[in-house]
Design brief:
By secondary structure, the protein is an all-beta fold. It contains no helices and twelve strands.
Amino acid sequence: METTNDWIRVCTTTDIDSEDVLRFDFAGRAYAIFNAKSGFYATADLCTHGGAHLSDGLVMGDIIECPLHQGRFHIPTGQAKSPPACRKLRTYPIRIEGNELYMSIDPQDGKHES
């Protein structure tokens, strides 16, 4: 796994179909990498309600629907959009160089939840 400063290479832009999501595991945590309608984004992969992997969910435009209880989140901001989800997802910066996609993870990420 290649890292640049605090940026971690996740995948290439062609690894994720349009309006799809890819699970990315790093340092014992799971992240969801999205190719949403408005661009590429990264969030925590676990739903803030039931703990299901959002990478198993359905992407609709800029919304991800949790596969467990159908709570929905706005991908770019992480905001909860429909019950039973009520707490926002943690989001992470994305950078694209050529067709390589990088994500920045806070070094404190493994120590607490947002």
